[in-house]
Amino acid sequence: MVNKENAEVYIKQEALTKPQYKDVPKKSWGSNKNLGPHYTFEIGPPEAFEKKLQEAQVGVPDGQKISTEYVT
Fold it and tell me: What is the C-alpha to C-alpha distance for residues 10 and 14, in angstroms, rounded to an integer?
């Protein structure tokens, strides 16, 4: 999370080979790999975002849960 306002989402390199991410690894210019962020969006209040993220991950094994990091 950047400045408690935006989320930057990075897709793991091994997952970028999946069909649903076929357009993600390409940059809009140049031939280098797109290391990310692959998606960005506004999160709203950080507390509400954290709650929604926890709710969305109920039943997901600990090793597969999305981790968050806040930077300013």
Answer: 12
